[in-house]
Amino acid sequence: MSLHGILEVLLIEDASELINFFQANSLHGCLPRGTATLWSLSDTERNSTIDQTVTNRPDLLIKCHLYHYNYGSDHRATYSEWNLRAQRKPTVKVKKAFDRADWDSIAREVLQ
């Protein structure tokens, strides 16, 4: 096994901790699977998905993508747009519990 092969095995072992953390906390990636976020400055063919944007509320994610310009960095910034509007709870119609009323007491008060 080459040194490169050993490094791959070590990286996979380290990634399992991260994967377990994501699963334990119900975290989901926001970018499409396999989206590269890092490009090697010395080898432009080499890239990685090292930068992660995650959420435990994927239902609130409107869109997520990389910025088109890298601003001189080997990492690309992530743009995320979320639906953070306050959720309005429906007005609950008040129900009168006539079956639990003390009708004898009410009748006495009405007659007074």
From TrEMBL:
One MF annotation (Gene Ontology) recorded for this entry: catalytic activity
Stretches assigned to coiled coil: none
Superkingdom per UniProt: Eukaryota
Pfam (any one): Exo_endo_phos_2
Location of the Endonuclease/exonuclease/phosphatase domain: 14-78
Protein name: Endonuclease/exonuclease/phosphatase domain-containing protein
Organism: Aspergillus tanneri
